[in-house]
Amino acid sequence: MVRPDAGWVEPELVEPELVEPGLVEPELVEPGIVDAVPSTRVAPVDEGVTRLYAFALDGLATDYLAAGEVEGQVADRWAMDAVDGTLRLAVGPTVETGNFNSVVTFAERGDSLVEIGRVDALGVGEQITSVRWFDDLAVLVTFRQIDPLYAVDLTDPAAPRLLGELKIPGFSEYLHPIGGERLLGVGQDASLQGRVRGAQLALFDVADLTAPRRVDVVGFGRATAAMAGQDPRQFTWLPDRETALTVLSDWRTGVGSVVVATVDGDRLDTRTVPVEAGRDVTRVRLVPLADGRVLLWTGSQVSAFPL
Q1: Residue 176 CA to chain centroid, in angstroms?
Q2: How far apart are CA 152 and CA 89, in angstroms?
């Protein structure tokens, strides 16, 4: 089985603002972006199943090994992972499933990929927004109105089980492990009614997987979008500095910025540095060097980024 290049697949101080009863918030909708995940079932994919194929790679040679199928829709390339001969998938609903998400495990049996275990009913009526895989753990985020974060134990591939969950407003589109049993989540803040309210960065404590916690969250305003949710290459972790660099876009001004977020215990200290404008915001990359410097690439120019 081929393991996708998963640059860790799920985050948020400032508790999301609650809507005061009787008050209606003005809505800002980013062009081309849906501001809440529909509550209805997703459209079917073919007959409601996803085809699976396993290959062996050896230099330039590729050999076909096995095939199978899973009922449901594999969310994206980050929703697949393989460890020690076990294929693990995060799948969403189709006409062949209930209106929920699942984590499903497969093993090779001759020339077939055979299902050996599953956990269902993750995020009923919701959509998978991010997945992160470890050797014996999956962290899954879904969203409709609130953001459930699920920790699934994969120690026994034939008997995966839900360990714990955390439900908070908003959702994470990209998750990154930063050591010390903590995760950073990059995504969107949202009201209790599911209206998105701009980009946010969250810090999660997963020391107790039966009771994961969000310990800090920083929001960046209604017109912003966190670009790492669409392209994980727009997120960079500097372990020696305990600092994350992630690209932020403001669709009202067209300006793209780099958020410098330093983890200080259970707190996130952030500042933003404007770096580009227009469509080239999607091309911004940050490249750490061995001498501690970081290079900024904007699509046409290279410069040293001020840390």
Answers
A1: 8
A2: 12
pLDDT digits (tens, 9 = 90+) for 55-70: 999 999 999 999 999 9
For residues 124 and 144, the answer to whether their CB atoms sit within 8 Å is no
Confidence (pTM): 0.76
Q: Using the 8-state DSSP alphabet, how is residue 209 labeled?
A: T
Of residues 114, 64, 63, the one with CA closest to residue 85: 114
The encoded tokens of residue 179 equal: 């050591």
> pLDDT by residue (tens digit) across 82-135?
999 999 999 999 999 999 999 999 999 999 999 999 999 998 888 898 999 999
How crowded is residue 81: how many other Cβ atoms within 10 Å of its Cβ?
Answer: 23
How far apart (Å, rounded) are the C-alpha atoms in residues 116 and 105? 6
Under the banding of pLDDT at 50, 70 and 90, the label for residue 256 is very high
CA-nearest of 219, 305, 286 to 247 is 286
32 phi-psi bin (left φ>0, alpha ψ -120 to 50, beta other): left
For residue 124, give the nearest of 150, 103, 99 by alpha carbon. 99
In angstroms, the CA 176 to CA 235 distance is 9
Measure CA of the first residue to CA of the last residue in the chain; give whole Å: 40
Kindly list the distances between the CA atom of residue 138 and the CA atoms of 9, 119, 153, in Å, as whole numbers in the listed order.
9, 11, 7
SS3 assignment, position 290? coil
CATH superfamily of 49-304: YVTN repeat-like/Quinoprotein amine dehydrogenase (2.130.10.10)
- Please tell me the predicted confidence (pLDDT) of residue 20: 40
**CA distance linking residue 162 with residue 297, whole number of Å:** 41
